[in-house]
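no rush on this but wanted to send it before i forget. theres a chain ive been looking at and ive put its sequence and its fold in token form underneath. i want to understand how the tokens follow from the sequence so walk me through it. thanks a lot i owe you, the record is right below:
>
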Amino acid sequence: MAGVVAAVGARVTRFQPGQEVYGTCESGSYAEYASARQSRLAPKPAGLTFEQAAAIPVSGMTALQAVRDVAQVRPGQRALVIGASGGVGSFAVQIAKAYGASVTGVCSAARAGLVRSLGADDVVDYAREEIDRDGARYDVVVDTAGNRPLSLLRRALTPRGTLVIVGGGHTAYRFTGGMGRTFRAPLLSMFVGQRLRPVVSRERAEHLEELARFVESGAVTPVIDRAYPLSEAPDAIRRLIEGHPAGKVVVTL
């Protein structure tokens, strides 16, 4: 969410009424008013509209933790982002570039121009090529798509590379459902040279502040697929369920 502080609790010290903020809410943001902990808010990045700012927090924080904290991307590394035109993926491409990596994005041919505009050095059209087309090339693979087996993902990694799994998978296992890869990856990582790690995203003000610095420096720009008025929120949800939005879907007041 993003908006203007209407009121603060007695123990709130970081914000005051009238301040423009962004972050995440206690119980949802599809509302004219919403409550949030001060630890999950930060000043809205300068120069952004409320719609742009609202598109950042959840996906942006997930991408930041995937790239910076789990993958520990460094200058000169080669990174592959699967689902590069999506909510988390579009941020991951930009953040990996900001940390100095050479980035390849995996997306549809129709989204290749968008992904390149985010800073990707190369693009893989998933309808024509597979991610291991060049062999074990990538130091880091960030998988936001969830539809490739660990064996294929590992073939694209260098022997000491890092795989970061964002979210669940499309294959439902008997006991773990769509989270089968998420549970299996750390176990497999104990027996191979590659680091295979899921992301457990945490929502903290420090992450929002870091994202704001990226935005204000020009390194990161939120991608908005479409904005819907609050009265059309069900249509926004259907857009998420039925298609693959380019970036984020936003509900506005």
